[in-house]
Automatic annotation (TrEMBL):
Protein name: Tyrosine recombinase XerC
Active-site residue numbers: 146, 170, 239, 242, 265, 274 (o-(3'-phospho-dna)-tyrosine intermediate)
Originating gene: xerC
Species this protein is from: Paraprevotella clara YIT 11840
Record-level GO cellular component terms: cytoplasm
Residues annotated as domain Tyr recombinase: 105-287
Keywords: Cell cycle, Cell division, Chromosome partition, Cytoplasm, DNA integration, DNA recombination, DNA-binding
Function of the protein: Site-specific tyrosine recombinase, which acts by catalyzing the cutting and rejoining of the recombining DNA molecules. The XerC-XerD complex is essential to convert dimers of the bacterial chromosome into monomers to permit their segregation at cell division. It also contributes to the segregational stability of plasmids.
Length: 293
């Protein structure tokens, strides 16, 4: 049998693991079972692209994920390349077949009510570290900066009078991000206290109790801690706050091009994923509110 010869080739010549070979066997057996149910006269030689496409559709309709379908299609593609190489077939029916695109997961974000509860509540201490932590969470939420961008901020990057921060993003590309009066007030309080404690020598904006620049790990952990006070969702990272910023901006009628610049995206297509998020929120609201939804 061709399939057995192919599996032996994977084992002996390609040195595939037993587990991988068995996965190939299962995928090929699944396809063979399918096409024989469609037409008992079909064989590996007489299969055409339409049969392969119909198989893909049947898997998607049965609830298989794009990842599973693509894996099975990959096994079939490798098998037919082997048959062509052996000159056992003349035409590869999988050659022009495109697998289904994987759905990009929607960004995880917090509701505005959750952020209001966190930032307006009494979750942060009144000491230096508490003020610093509140400022950090606010900065993520108000500016949408990335984790590395926040920890890389220096004192001179913050213009209190102009209400902007200079952010150094990916590939050292710099951008200017504005902020409002609430963040300005928190910044002034934090900087005053930092100065009184003699922590300005290093130049880093966000520092620990020793005056040393905060690490990404430290900031990630403290954000996770505070977000856990207002949400039960598993993802509670600084990037969730970046998503929250972007979603809030769009919900309050910011245009995509402006949001792209604020986030430091290279392409508008990257920013467009947030439109899907706001649309999902709109659908949820519709389903809850409309009597016939």
């Amino acid at each position: 049998m061709w399939t057995e010869a192919f599996l032996e080739y994977l084992t002996l010549e390609r040195n595939y693991s037993l587990r991988t070979v068995e996965e190939y066997r299962d995928d090929l057996n699944a396809f063979e079972s399918y096409y024989k149910k469609v037409d008992s006269t079909l064989s590996w030689e007489t299969i055409d692209g339409d049969v392969v496409r119909d198989w893909m559709v049947s898997m998607m309709e049965a609830g298989r994920t794009a990842t599973t379908v693509n894996r099975r299609l990959s096994a079939l593609r490798t098998f037919y390349r082997y048959l062509l190489k052996r000159d056992w077939i003349k035409v590869d029916p999988v050659r022009n077949i495109q697998g289904p695109k994987k759905k990009k997961p929607l960004p995880v974000f917090l509701k505005e009510s959750e952020m209001d509860r966190l930032l307006d509540g009494e979750f942060f201490g009144s000491d230096f570290l508490g003020k610093r932590d509140k400022l950090i969470v606010n900065t993520f939420y108000v500016t949408g900066v990335r984790l590395s961008e926040l920890t890389g901020l220096n004192n001179q990057d913050v213009d209190l009078w102009g209400g902007v921060i200079k952010v150094t993003g990916k590939r050292n590309k710099q951008r200017i991000v504005p902020f409002g009066r609430e963040l300005e007030a928190l910044l002034r309080t934090y900087l005053d206290e930092k100065s009184s404690l003699g922590m300005e020598d290093g130049g880093a904006m966000f520092v620990d109790e020793k005056g040393e620049r905060l690490t990404n790990v430290k900031v990630r952990n403290l954000v996770r801690h505070y977000l856990g006070m207002v949400t039960t969702q598993k993802k509670r990272s600084p990037h969730v706050l970046r998503h929250t910023f972007a979603t809030s901006m769009l919900n309050h009628h910011a245009d995509l091009e402006s949001l792209k610049e604020l986030l430091g995206h290279e392409s508008i297509s990257t920013t467009e994923i947030y439109t899907h998020t706001t649309f999902e929120e709109l659908k949820e609201m519709y389903n809850q509110a409309h009597p016939r939804a």
